[in-house]
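Review this fold:
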Amino acid sequence: MSLLYWPGLSGEFIFDDWSNLALLGQYGVIDTAEKLWLYLSSGFSGPTGRPLSHLSFLLDARTWPAEPWPFKRTNLLIHLLNSLLLWGLLRQLLLAVGTPAHRSAAVAVLATGLWLLHPMWVSTTLYVVQRMAQLSALFSLLGLWWYVWARTSHAPRAGWPLYLHMALAVGGCGLLAVLSKENGALLPVLVLVLEITVLAAHDRRQPHPPTAAFRTWRAVCVGLPAALVLGYWLALVPSLWGGEAGARAFTPYERLLTQGRVLWDYLAALALPKPGGGSLYNDAVVVSTGWFSPWTTAFAWVAWAVVAGLALRWRTRWPLAAAAVLFFLAGHLLESTFLQLELYFEHRNYLPAALLGLPVACALWPKAPAPGRPWWADRRVLAVLLLTGLAAVTAQRANVWGQPFVQALRWVQEQPRSPRALHHLSNFWQRTGHLEEAARLNRLALELDPNGLPWVLASVGLDCQQGQPPQAGVGRLLATLNAVAHQPQIATAQLNQLFAYLTDGTCRGYTPAQVLVLVHEVRTSRLARDAQPVQVLLWQREAQLHLQQKRYVEAAQAFGQVRQLTPEPDVNLLGVAQLATHGQYRQALALLDTLQPTTAAAPGLPRNMPAVHRWYMAKVGYHEREMQRLRQALLDELKDLPLDAQPHSPEPPVR
């Protein structure tokens, strides 16, 4: 298995890896308990912050930047561990329906192999940040195995050993899964699927039916958390009729319609995997705007209703097949319905597809050897050929992931109408100085999505590098910022990259004064008016541009505007440090005197990870120490300067 993935371990970080892993360097080398807790509470992916996933990244690096190889290696090890847990679960499910022990072990090995070797998981295993999905699956598989083992090892009657196992399997493993990624909350729903299929078949084989006390505990341990998850899901249903797309190009209702088709695409890719690059960029998916736009939308949802209905009806006759189908659908409840996420990602199938190989393995592995049958007619030969084919495609795909430029080329070949894939390849050509090809690909991305901020921003830089007047690119940028909504955090990061490029000296067509004009123009856009992070960025950039031009009073006033927009000490201490770097110690002290350290969160339990982060910073006095250290450093600098050399300002530095 390791040999199949080994070529892919040499690949690069990609896409969301950069923003999530950069937290490793936010507080310097993580070598103290305080830095550890500050880091673990800094996660921004989802309301939990996914601290267990971030904790696992410390296995590979304690600072940033870092090399990608160790991260990918750990992902591969987790994938192998998940296969062991899956084997245990599948074997336990087979035993639960009365399969002999020797056949249960063999069929479980085959079914696990069909999952483990599937090429769809290359994009999960070698995409570092998807460790979050892997770890959530790990704890979910552990909880499922534990629960099924406890149920099949104890009679379904009152008994504290059984009750404790059930509670720890669902509650304990569920909590760990959620702290890795939020869709771990589906664990009780997945347990419920097994209860109404495989475990119901197991109970029917017992001499005595489940007692009333056991059924009550099962309702509390499994039914109640499952109902809470489904209740949360149902509470969001009204958003379907709101018609608000937000920063997406589709509404929640349109996303729900589209997912019916996407789920069939997932199933087709699982059943008939093709050689390729396993692209992360699937933004060319056609959005369903109605039940018959395209017409396959209605057909897809009707087909899913029929499949789910048949699985429920025949769960008594074929419990393993019914469990596989319902498990797949239940596993997609959060990420593949109407929540405003991206439309398509292969990694969303990592756990939901875990049982799909079980009915296939049962069909391929005979219950008893057939004497006199030639070897080539044995269904086990077909099983070996199937595993070999999956392994070959997986090795080919992993090899592509180990060659970033080849990967970018392949993704464009597979997704020629994906603006993201085109932009990704354009970046490679731009980095190697092939500006004409980079510009051509970027123009194709603009034709497909005229308001896509990454390629609109790229056009400004490419125009500058090619010595063309920047007016066209800037005009397109301003039009885009006014035309559509963008995700504020992502847009802020992308704009920051553009301004960094325009001011680092690479782009000779822009002087600090010209970049300052662009900052003022962006400030009048719809995006800047609606998004505070963008406003903060623009004032920070204005202050830095003033510093470059030695206009220190204006720089201090711009940092003062940042202070009025946000009280966050981290943001404002950056302004203090930059003023001090330019020798403006009095201005820096004046700004520092206006800052307040982080205050504790509101009474009660923190509702999300940012609140936990603020509470911990206040508890340890992190910002108080930083402010005291910085103040003392500024005072020492002033003390060491001759009186006539100490910088001063004729105007109040901060408003």
